[in-house]
User: Fold these one by one.
Assistant:
Number 1:
Amino acid sequence: MQTAFVVIWVGLFVGSLIAYQVASPAFKRAAYVPFIVVVGILFAGFVTLLDGTRNVAFVVIVVAVITVINAVTVRFCPECGTYNHRPFSRPQYCTKCGAALDGDGGTRKDDGDLRHP
Ligand SMILES: [Zn+2]
């Protein structure tokens, strides 16, 4: 079981690195939340298989909270596809190119509002 865990985890890691390099911004935006939900389910499943069901409620709650936080605080730029993450809020502008992440066409450079320190 540990071998399967390592193989699947390395596969997911390498696959996501490749996808990050080659996928379109639209694909990244569409696929991110389903991807992290699947990863969370796999992680909780592996922990339960390896550790038994005595901590399953705790594992599911922690994985669910982390998944929701990532779904809310990670956004991919519609222009350049860059991964943008802010720890406690939804990023509004791309850290690489300054494009608005909500897709309204405005940019950080245009309105002079530097929201990233
Ligand atoms: Zn960008």
Number 2:
Amino acid sequence: MWWARRRRPGKTDPARQVLGMAIPFLVLGGVLLATGPRALVPYLFLVAGVLLAWGLLLRLRQGKPAESAFDSSQHRNTSMLGSQLDSRAGDLLPEPSNRNLRPPAGVWTMQVLRDIEWRRFETVCTMLFAQVGLEARSESHGAEDGIDIWLYSQHAEGPAALVRCRHWLDKPVSTQDVREFHTLMTRHKLLRGTYATSGKFKPQARELAKSSGINAMDGLGLLALISQRTPQQKKELLSIAYEGEYWRPTCGLCGRKMAERRASRRGKTYWGCVDAPNCAFTLPVRKPS
Ligand SMILES: [Zn+2]
């Protein structure tokens, strides 16, 4: 799984390095004090003392005790959209800094897609394609990989069409993404498919989709489809979109709502699971748009 990628081990702690450098000076000073010429001893102890003070200062600035060194082999973390975050449980922030304080949109516009978190987007997509008239069965693949919605017709055995929905506001759909989707369609002998994203398609990806019988639906395309629904259906979709803490992301591993955390006093904030460190799923904090 994409989130199972492990953190590269051995990111060295500078404080520990400096403290380690003091050891040879201390040992040599001790040996000379006991056995040999003592003229150098004060200088050796002085250097060791400076290194120890420097190391301790670095340690204090990091704001963590030495025994909390992170064991990478026991944890997993995510690299969604290229952001690498530490998966240990950082400090909980009292109020999420990126919480979108603007009021919910009254009608379907791009603001709704930007306001809602990934799991809510998937729920809205599933509802939308169920409203189109076919029986919809969805299969979620997590925050990054989106959801596949299999559409069944009463008149045919097996799925009649497939819809892939991805909440990718900041990352365009590539030709590789379209190719993977087409492979899945072919494997299930499907001639019709829709690739929906809350963001955009790369121009070549859009062309490939067209020549492969795939309906490439970007954020505006999704809004156009929603605009064809009845007023009642649009209202239903909007109330589902904005129910509860629509802005707070869901954990991709355990399904609980996440909490904003900060790795250290000056560190970057990120979304961490409320069950951290037992659940190590993280997501980057997106800038409010
Ligand atoms: Zn979790």
